[in-house]
Design goal:
The protein is of the alpha+beta class. About 30% of the residues lie in helices and about 25% in strands. The chain is built from eight helices and nine strands.
Length: about 240
């Protein structure tokens, strides 16, 4: 029952606010590494892989689901631990376990070289890890191509430095995407340095009537506009 509840959390739901979900806006960063094979010019062929800047552990995934999928606190963390034990228990007995993510099964390795099937015994077989085959639906759900890709050492062209308060407010409005902004986004739109951009956003979170509130998503601070209670408050950020 608990495992079913866990998988249900990740099933498509109509009440998930997609506008609140964190998104990358500059393209997914990738890095290049030389492979073992060589090209026609004799140089190693390059292969690409994502540049991982933030890693979600079990606790982070639980907090993510609590915030965006309305699960109870520690629900996903507890069910993940239970699911891990259950899947491991079945796999080590030689079963294949199918989940919405994919199927898990033990991977076996045949020692030595054999051509005669009749001479192979259990002593020639060793455990060689886990075989995981993702489902087609899960692969499609994880498709990240719509965000585009950006090389690790590429640079985003920054805007002209915003000197006046009016220019900075305009840059702030333009930096909001999916309901929030970050220091990096504001830097790209305003042309300000990191220290100045961070200080500007932090100041908007202070006072009796702050314009922004901040919260942490992984290792990054997000800044969200506090819903104005009066037209004057909204006007301060150039709202209509």
């Amino acid at each position: 029952m608990y495992i079913c509840r866990f998988f249900a959390i990740f099933a498509p739901q109509n009440n998930i606010r997609s506008s609140d979900m964190p998104r990358k806006t500059d393209g997914i960063v990738f890095e290049l590494h030389p492979g073992a094979k060589k090209g026609e010019d004799g140089k190693p062929l390059q292969y690409a892989r994502p540049k991982i800047t933030v890693t979600y552990d079990t606790k982070g995934l639980d907090e993510y689901c609590t915030k965006y999928y309305y699960s109870a606190s520690k629900q996903v963390q507890n069910i993940l631990n239970l699911a891990s034990e259950a899947v491991a228990s079945l796999v080590k007995q030689g079963y294949r376990v199918e989940t919405p993510f994919g199927s898990f099964a033990p991977k076996l390795k045949l020692l030595g070289e054999h051509t005669d099937r009749n001479r192979v015994t259990g002593k020639d077989i060793v455990y060689d890890g886990i075989e995981f085959i993702p489902t087609k639906a899960f692969k499609k759900a994880c498709d990240c191509s719509r965000h585009g890709f950006r090389k690790e050492d590429s640079r985003i062209v920054k805007a002209k430095r915003a000197e006046t308060e009016e220019e900075r407010q305009k840059a702030l409005r333009e930096s909001f995407y999916e309901g929030y902004t970050t220091v990096k986004r504001f830097m790209n739109k305003s042309g300000l340095g990191e220290t100045t951009a961070r200080a500007y956003l932090e100041n908007l979170c202070k006072g009796d009537t702050p314009l922004l509130c901040r919260y942490r998503e992984g290792t990054t601070k997000h800044y969200r506009l506090i819903q104005p209670s009066t037209p004057d408050k909204k006007q301060e950020l150039g709202g209509r």
